[in-house]
Specification:
The structure is a homodimer. Helices cover 74% and strands 0% of the residues of chain A. The first copy, chain A, contains eight helices and no strands. At the A-B interface, helix 1, helix 5, helix 6, helix 7 and helix 8 of A face helix 1, helix 5, helix 6, helix 7 and helix 8 of B.
Chain lengths: 179, 179
């Protein structure tokens, strides 16, 4: 296939589900001002989809440790969950949301800070409840966990090797078990 | 600024260094078949630049532990090193090199496998030389270290917070010190 043919095929693959639901370009731009507005709404949708998966799994856990392990399990098995198409919206959007789309950049920023704050509070709560050892740096651990998860997805995206993601997720699990 | 003005400014910023060296579009396409060929050569250039920085720092270290710590130091202080403009070429290229550019995708894949193999061998060598504890899973540790570094860069790229990268790099250092 030539480059032009591959691009053409990619566009068809990506837009096929849209046309399959009866949406036309006219109906999209009748509801959104431009492509940037669609990208913002799509990011919100994908993040909310992810948060719903995580929340639904978390309410079934009894300990904070098990709740933290939900992140590892959901991201390591996201083929089994109704995960957003294309993988992690944070990873996919960070390198794309450059200075030409400041609103999208701001949304990715908020999503990471929000995730980091939520995990930090969970760890602090675990320490307060004496489920975790005292003296842990909660924010550093939260950031490390997020970095491991996103890095693991990146490595598997680049190499296609699912066992590489699995290996890093094992380390993330070890980090949580050591709290 | 409107979206069009921001895009215009970004193009000017990115191409300014090229025109500054006297290169014209004509001279680029006189030497490369197309934009894809330029992207491949640019990726090779940036990866080699990175490897040179790492190698130059490594030869000054006496222990394998100190050699491994070079990765953490170089990536954590890459503003101080003559790092490729724009950050980590692996991170920036992974989400861009989709199915429309299989050669670039293949290069990113090779770069990660090569990095992972090199770190794995260093850890194995450290175990053989009794510098590291026995029984470590060298490949899992190598992948975890790479995921932490790439994840840390991603978090700082998305949030602009250098101290978040620093926090994750502290965890990476701890991982190496615990070997």
């Amino acid at each position: 296939m030539s480059k032009a043919e591959r691009t053409r095929q990619l566009i068809v693959e990506k837009t096929a589900p849209i046309f399959n639901t009866g949406l036309t370009k006219g109906s999209i731009y009748g509801n959104f001002a431009n492509k940037d507005e669609v990208a913002l709404a799509a990011f919100d949708h994908n993040i909310q989809k992810l948060q719903t998966i995580v929340r639904d799994e978390m309410v079934r856990q009894r300990t904070i440790r098990d709740q933290l392990l939900v992140y590892v399990r959901v991201y390591d098995n996201f083929m089994k969950h109704p995960f957003p198409v294309g993988g992690c919206p944070i990873l996919n959007t960070t390198t794309e949301a450059d200075s030409t789309h400041p609103q999208l950049k701001s949304k990715v920023n908020e999503a990471i800070i929000d995730w980091k704050d939520r995990v930090t509070r969970m760890i602090e709560k675990g320490v307060d409840a004496k489920e975790f050892k005292p003296g842990v740096n909660a924010e550093q651990t939260a950031l490390t966990l997020i970095a491991m998860i996103e890095g693991a997805i990146l490595i598997t995206m680049a190499t296609g090797k699912l066992n590489y993601r699995k290996a890093v997720m094992n380390s993330a699990e070890k980090l949580i078990m050591g709290l």
